[in-house]
Amino acid sequence: MRFGVVLAVALVVLSTGCLGGSNGTGYLTVERVDELPQGEGAVSYENLSSAQQEVFQQALDEDGSVTLEKGIDRNEFIDPGYVRYDGDVYRTSVAVP
């Protein structure tokens, strides 16, 4: 019984990309917010990896949404994530098909 529950949870985590470093394709959405919600922190754009910076910038250029290719770490973007960029705060979220 216990093995079945552990297996079911593992399958859900793997299939939904709940692990930040998932290698599956997903979609990053970036939306500017007026202020950081109380109790939330934001990662500085400069602290993102070069691949994360590139996909974040692409999302801004593509009206807020872009495909995350395999191999791009998503930890800083997981729901909700916040990124400080160019004096503004952006809410990020990741959807996995």
UniProtKB/TrEMBL annotation:
Segments forming domain DUF7979: 26-92
InterPro entries: DUF7979
Top-rank taxon, per record: Archaea
Pfam families documented for this protein: DUF7979
Protein name from the UniProt record: DUF7979 domain-containing protein
Organism: Haloferax mediterranei (strain ATCC 33500 / DSM 1411 / JCM 8866 / NBRC 14739 / NCIMB 2177 / R-4) (Halobacterium mediterranei)
Organism lineage: Archaea, Methanobacteriati, Methanobacteriota, Stenosarchaea group, Halobacteria
